[in-house]
Amino acid sequence: MFLKEYVLTAGKEKQPVETHSACKGNLRFVPVDIACFSTWLKLNVHDGQQRHTFQVFDVVKQGYWNREGGLWDIYLIFFEEQAIGTFTCSFYPGQPEILNFGGFLIDHNYQGKGFGCMALQKLIQWVPRLYPERKQIVLDVDPRNRVAVRLYRKLGFRYRGWRPPFFRIYERDLA
């Protein structure tokens, strides 16, 4: 039952958004619901990357045990008809202009093909349309995940600070 609550934000159910043509196909974000839950659970990264990112089960656990009282929207990233990744958008009281981006992963079968970059570029364009009140995207990253840090910087995210025990926080203004 809790999953449906986190797919909703402020009482509005999210619908799949427009597609983005790239790599000779369409990339789209679809809210996770009961119909695609089993597909979502199958996403995974390489063994050596697990220390850098939440696994899907961890995202469920974090969303369910959200101690700070925020709302979570969980999305699948589809390329054509294949689920290739996931991410979360979360919102917290006292931060009305910030979208917290997390739980981002591209399935190990689709890594190294530009899908992470495509998904983040689309996210930067998509957030102002779906969440118009949000003016900034904030994320935290394991600094040992050099590929992710390089990608975030390439797309305009700047270092903001750190969060114990060792995560680095990056931000990007929208508009």
TrEMBL record:
Keywords: Acyltransferase, Transferase. The keyword Repeat does not apply. InterPro entries: Acyl_CoA_acyltransferase (IPR016181), GNAT_dom (IPR000182), YpeA/RimI_acetyltransf (IPR050680). Residues 27-175 form the N-acetyltransferase domain. Gene3D superfamilies: 3.40.630.30. One of its GO terms (molecular function) is acyltransferase activity, transferring groups other than amino-acyl groups. Pfam families: Acetyltransf_1 (PF00583). It comes from the Bacteria. This is GNAT family N-acetyltransferase. It comes from Acanthopleuribacter pedis.
